Amino acid sequence: MPTPFEIAAAMNSAAVDTVYGEAFQCFAMAAAGDVDGPRQADPARDSFTVTGGFLAPSHSVLPHARGSVQDDNAHKVAISVPRVSFDNRLMVWPLRPGDRVVRLKTGETFEVAKALPDGVLRTMFSLTARKRT
Questions:
Q1: pLDDT at residue 39 greater than cutoff 90
Q2: Which of 27, 84, 87, 90 has the CB geometry, 3.0–4.6 Å to 100, for a possible disulfide?
Q3: Selecting from 2.40.10, 2.60.120, 3.90.79, 1.10.1060, what CATH number does the domain 4-61+74-127 have?
């Protein structure tokens, strides 16, 4: 029997997908035989479509500079890190770094950089910049 915490987490996850959810297609990628070659599709894991929440929050950082004078004069730069959150129960297989995620709403293709599980029900995936297909 699920605990009240697990029930609340499932309700929260369903609410996130209902309000912010959109369709994503996930593709498994594997390293090719050549170390310097591009990654190839992994035939052992089939692609699947899943509903998730997309966010690309902006935050400001100081750019890297060479010395203290440049650091003092450097201006903050606003950057955006795209992320997607999936309910673990809806995923056919867990995404790994290097796998591709296609946002079907816009057709943008991203690569998974790292997984940030919440320890309960959802996993937030940091995505890299758009990839050419």
A1: no
A2: 27
A3: 2.40.10
